[in-house]
Prior knowledge:
The protein has helices at 45-53, 95-105, 110-123, 139-152, 169-186, 197-203, 221-226, 231-236, 300-303; strands spanning 5-15, 21-30, 34-38, 60-65, 68-69, 80-83, 157-161, 189-194, 206-211, 214-219, 241-244, 250-253, 258-262, 269-279, 282-289, 292-299, 311-316, 320-322. Strand 1 (5-15) and strand 2 (21-30) form a beta hairpin. The protein has a six-stranded mixed sheet, sandwiched between helices. A five-stranded antiparallel sheet has the order 13-17-14-15-16. The longest helix has 18 residues, at 169-186. By secondary structure, it is an alpha+beta fold. The chain folds into two domains: 5-233, Rossmann fold (3-Layer(aba) Sandwich), CATH 3.40.50; 241-322, CATH 2.40.50.100. Residues 7-237 form the ABC transporter domain. Keywords: ATP-binding, Nucleotide-binding, Transport.
Amino acid sequence: MDKKIKLKIADMKKHYKNGDGVDGINIDVHEGEFVTMLGPSGCGKSTILRTLGGFLSVDSGDILIDGVSVKNLPPEKRPTAMVFQSYNLWPHMTVSENLAFGLEIKKISKNEIKAEVERGLALVNMSGFEKKYPGQLSGGQQQRVAIARALLLKPSVLLLDEPFSALDAKIRSQMREELKRIQEELNITVVFVTHDQEEAMALSHRIVVMNKGVIEQIGTPEEIYDRPATQFVASFIGDMNFLMENDGSAMAVRPEDIVITKGVTEGQICGRVRTVMVLGHYAEINVEVGDQVIKAYVTRAAAEEIKPRDAVSLLFTKTCKYCA
């Protein structure tokens, strides 16, 4: 990528008193890039985000935005804006007043603030809600206002800490699409934190997969999914079958990379169908192979030919191998 580096995290370390934290963090985020920190709870992704925003100090290493170190600056002095899971809107202020608050601190004129507030609300499809209070809005609407408020500060880097996790599935999906549209429209640089792999895959230009305070892999969604660098990444991203080999290594295969045929075929892995489950436009078939169960995804048409207890053969079209 030939775009300039907007954010650079250089050999950053942050440990808590209990020993948890992150170590050896090196990430370059380019201008206009959407980078997601992905991993299970407690892996360190929110720790990194909070050090970027200035809410946590770093033990060592550096954080540079537009080539300038910000590691010793307080949050209000950094060219960042953060959107939290909990919205953090002032309940006693109207939507308009919430959006104007940060601009008033910057001593911007009233006319300019009014224009900016209108622009921000239009950007998140909330025009006409200026006089509403947060308590009169749904969770999704409150999060739209929180995003608009952050964008009006014109940050060099927008930080989002699991902003959609409190929303129900349908609203969360809508908000993802809205955020993707806004990010591309404004070409803003975003660092996003989530434990939801589907969210990360849908939104990101690149994903940073975290585990126990260290980075397991950095790559595009396609690279992370198709070529997971470690067994942890393979198991965390999408569904994966692991077949243990005699040498203790593991062969991994995605359910969609398995072709099932009825009957026993010499040279292929054979087993017996345990369950067939239709899941909308495709079906999941679970096959008992020895003491393991292998999951495969097939078309509904293919599933109609296969019944529980049928003897079947499995052909793997793509696999990964991980050493013991």
